[in-house]
């Protein structure tokens, strides 16, 4: 009997340990950092498919969307801090409920327009400086098996896929890389967008391969994103794998481990 009681007590302690661990992990994820895996190439070359990072949820305060499954009993935003232009932000899509990651380009009240692939903010051209060529192998990437778009396409399987790279400097001095494939798509020539109060305008750094605020929600874009939909800021890549699975250790990108997100 003593042995059975000891066994039952051990099982109970194990269950309690697991429950406590899950509670601590849930609190940590809700209040501090949320893991995020990059599934697409819309933020190349800042973020690559297979990059793994933690999103800083303290950066902008907390809203309904700070909790898993949007269960936070919060109206609006508490302990909120305004994001800065140029931040790389994870946010909740206003329609389909998925998490997106893009760069913050337009603040409330800004006007945003693209002309021949060049960004204009509040009527002024945002300077771009040529910065060489971004190269990658034309092959399926990540668990979803996405194929990259190439400026030098069509490219055969295993060939070198290239895109022109530029350094763009935003009005607040934040500089970051952008990639260009062509200058004739809808996203390269747009109407003037005026960002409403309490909303933000986001774009991907891989400008010709990003469904972002340039595209309305009816066609798969995100449109203007409300402040309370912001989840957090991406500050640092913790791990990166170029393979179809993170278990393929020979595809790990060790040069991207603990790399700051600029």
From TrEMBL:
Belongs to the peptidase S26 family. GO terms for biological process: signal peptide processing. One of its GO terms (cellular component) is membrane. Coiled coil: none annotated. The chain crosses the membrane at residues 18-38. The active site is at 42, 102. CDD domains: S26_SPase_I. Its main location: membrane. The keyword Protease applies. It catalyses: Cleavage of hydrophobic, N-terminal signal or leader sequences from secreted and periplasmic proteins. This is Signal peptidase I. Its EC number is 3.4.21.89. The lineage of its organism: Bacteria, Pseudomonadati, Pseudomonadota, Alphaproteobacteria, Rhodobacterales. InterPro entries: LexA/Signal_pep-like_sf, Pept_S26A_signal_pept_1, Pept_S26A_signal_pept_1_CS, Pept_S26A_signal_pept_1_Lys-AS, Peptidase_S26. It is a single-pass type II membrane protein. Residues 12-238 form the Peptidase S26 domain. Keywords: Hydrolase, Membrane, Protease, Transmembrane, Transmembrane helix. GO terms for molecular function: serine-type endopeptidase activity; signal peptidase activity. It is found in: Membrane.
């Amino acid at each position: 009997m003593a042995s059975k009681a000891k066994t039952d007590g051990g099982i109970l302690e194990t269950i309690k340990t697991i429950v406590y661990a899950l509670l601590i992990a849930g609190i940590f994820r809700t209040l501090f950092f949320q893991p995020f895996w990059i599934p697409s190439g819309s933020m190349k070359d800042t973020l690559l498919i297979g990059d793994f990072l933690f999103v800083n949820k303290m950066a902008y305060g907390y809203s309904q969307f700070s909790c898993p499954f949007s269960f936070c009993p919060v109206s609006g935003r508490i302990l909120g801090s305004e994001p800065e232009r140029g931040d790389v932000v994870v946010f909740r899509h206003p329609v389909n409920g998925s998490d997106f990651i893009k760069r913050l380009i337009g603040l409330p009240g800004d006007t945003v327009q693209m002309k021949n692939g060049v960004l204009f903010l509040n009527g002024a051209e945002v300077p771009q400086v040529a910065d060489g060529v971004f190269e990658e192998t034309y092959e399926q990437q990540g668990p979803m098996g996405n194929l990259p778009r190439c400026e030098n396409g069509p490219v055969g399987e295993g060939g070198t896929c290239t895109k022109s790279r530029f350094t763009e400097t935003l009005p607040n001095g934040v500089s970051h890389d952008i990639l260009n494939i062509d200058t004739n798509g809808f996203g390269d020539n747009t109407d003037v967008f005026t960002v409403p109060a309490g909303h933000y305008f986001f774009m991907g750094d891989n400008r010709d391969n990003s469904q972002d605020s340039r595209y309305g929600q009816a066609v798969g874009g995100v449109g203007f994103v409300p402040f309370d939909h912001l989840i957090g800021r991406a500050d640092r890549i913790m791990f990166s794998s170029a393979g179809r699975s993170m278990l393929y250790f020979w595809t790990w990108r060790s040069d991207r481990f603990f790399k700051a997100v600029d």
